[in-house]
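Subject: Sanity check before I submit

Could someone independently write out the structure tokens for this chain? I want to compare against mine line by line before I put it in a report. The sequence has 241 residues.
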Amino acid sequence: MVIPNWPAPSVVKAYTTTREGGYSQPPFEGFNLADHVGDDPDAVAANRAALVETLELPSEPVWLKQVHGIQTVSANAQHRDCMADAVYATELEQVCVVMTADCLPVLFCDRAGTRVAAAHAGWRGLASGVLETTLQTLDLPAQDILVWLGPAIGPDAFEVGDEVREAFIDFLPEAAEAFKSNREGHWLADLYLLARQRLAHEGVTAVYGGDFCTYSDAKRFYSYRRDKVTGRMASLIWLAR
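---
Independent answer below. Compare away.
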């Protein structure tokens, strides 16, 4: 389990799971929490039950159907299993969660501990504005918001084409700093820097984390880019009583 290192108030509880432990068999071996990747449903159910027990979750997590978009929903029962890539909570004990295996999980809270959110930011969602949409939903002054960047594919492993680079630079010219030429028409992209730039553009500068690489750390993390058929980690956040 990865515990965010950020100055969140004590009422905010946040974690990212790893692949270690669990009931899933190869190629999902370990603690796969996704029910859409071809894993044995019984193994996934057992892993989710273990997650609830291990973290003493106050409620069932809001499992989203992620589509690499920018839709943000509230963490209440009527939105369970809906298509969205970010979820927020303003009430106690509502567990927000996103699943990833190279994409960037982004956790949000405010300094007063009154609201939290989780966003799934692959490059498509990041370029389309999922972080900005999540910030709008939180409806707080930028200086009041804390952000943690969870385990994602690192800047030395994430190769993309010209179209990805151009999508970011068209919005923010300084995004060019996040791309390093790798070969003709291909670039190594720094998702962490791209996220920090987008957040800074919205005035959010209290950003922590961003020092992982799911691709290179096969023992701890799932990686779709590395393995293709693989499980998913979960990044969770909620307000405790």
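---
OP: Matches mine. For the report I'm noting this point. The chain has a mean pLDDT of 96.
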